[in-house]
Amino acid sequence: MNKASHTDHHIHLFRDGRPLSLKELDWLAELCERAEIKTLYDMGSKEGLGFRFKEGLETRGITLKTCGYALYKAGGYGGFIGRPVNGPQQIPLMIRELYERGVDFIKVVHSGVVSYNKEGYVTKGGFLREELSLIVQVAESFGLRVHCHVNSEHRIIEAIEAGVSSIEHGFFMSRRALEMMKEARVSWTPTACALLSLAERVSSEEAQFYRAVVRKHLEMVKEAYRLGIMINTGSDAGASGIVHGEAFLKERELLEKASKD
Ligand SMILES: [Zn+2]
Q1: Phi, psi (deg, nearest 5) at residue 187
Q2: How far is the CA of 216 from the centre of ligand 1 (A)?
C-alpha cells in the first residue's frame, strides 16, 4: 500500500466537536493505529491545539502536520477551527505569527459549509478575492502552501485563481473548476464521508438532499481521477459525529471505488 493510504489529510484535534485534551492523545493514537494512519493533517482549531499536541503525537508514532488555527473572514464561517481576519492589514501579521509558531501550512476558509437550510445551500463565509490572493502571496513568501476550505463553484474558482494548493471539501464542484485545478496542479480533499455522516443525523427530507449532493460530488471525484488530479483522503474526523480512524477508512473506500468506476 502506498504512503498516501496512511495519511488522513483532513482532521481536527477534536472529539465529536469538542477540543481534545493532552490526556486524550493516547486515545487518538490508538484510533490512528487501528486504521494504520501514520500522518495527520490538522486543519485547525481556534485554540491552536496542533502546536501543543505535535510533540506528544510524535512520541506516539504519529506525524502531525498542522496549520495551528485556520484564518477566516470575520463575520463568516470558521469560529471553531480558526481565528478571524478583520481586514487585509492583519493578513501579513497573522501569517508571520503562524510561521513563527512553526506551522506546516496555512489553512484558509473561503466559504461556509453545505447546509440544506441555506439559500444556495452554502452558509456565509469567505474572503474578498484580493484578500485571498494576499493570503496566498504572503504565505508563499514564508514558503508555506495554502489549503483552502471552500464550497460552491464560484468560490472554488476564486480559490484556484488566488493560487491555493489544495481544495478542501469542494462541494458543488464543476467540470470547469476541475479543468482549472488540473492546469494549476491543485489537489483535492473531497471529505465525502463527512457529509454522508451528517445525513445520518437529520430529518429524512434533509438526508435525501445531502445524499444527492454526495452522489454528485463523487461523480466529480471520478472525473477528477480521470483528469489525473491528485485526490487526498481526508475524513474531517473530530467534527461532531465523525470518528477518527473509522471515518478515514470509510472515506478511503469511497474514493477507491470512485477511482475504479
Ligand atoms: Zn474540516
Answers
A1: -90, 170
A2: 20
β-pair type (14-15, 18-19): antiparallel
This prediction has a pTM of: 0.96
Supply the Cα-derived Rg of the chain in whole angstroms.
17
- The answer to whether residue 261 sits within a structural domain is no
Cα 84 to Cα 49, 72, 148, distances in angstroms: 17, 5, 15
Q: Convert the pLDDT of each residue in 224-254 to its tens digit.
A: 999 999 999 999 999 999 999 999 999 999 9
List all residues 6 or more positions away from 213 whose beta carbon is below 8 Å from its beta carbon: 114, 121, 171, 172, 195
At position 119, the amino acid (one-letter code) is E
Tell me the CA distances in angstroms from 49 to 20, 22, 45, 55, 191, one per residue in order. Answer: 8, 9, 6, 11, 21
147 backbone dihedrals φ, ψ, rounded to 5°:
-100, 130
Closest among 193, 235, 239 to 16, alpha carbons compared? 239
Hey, what's the cell of 165?
494548493
Q: How many angstroms does the Cα of residue 172 sit away from the middle of ligand 1? A: 16
- Whether 90 is covered by a domain: the verdict is yes
Q: What is the distance in A from the centroid of ligand 1 to the CA of 123?
A: 15
3-class SS of residue 189 = strand
Between the CA of 244 and the centroid of ligand 1 the distance, in Å, is: 12
CATH code of the domain containing 68 = 3.20.20.140
pLDDT of residue 4 exceeding 80: no
Secondary structure of 3-42 in the HEC alphabet?
HHHHEEEEECCEECCEECCHHHHHHHHHHHHHCCCCEEEE
Print the domain residue range for 178. Answer: 3-256
| CA atoms of 169 and 147, how far apart (whole Å) | 11
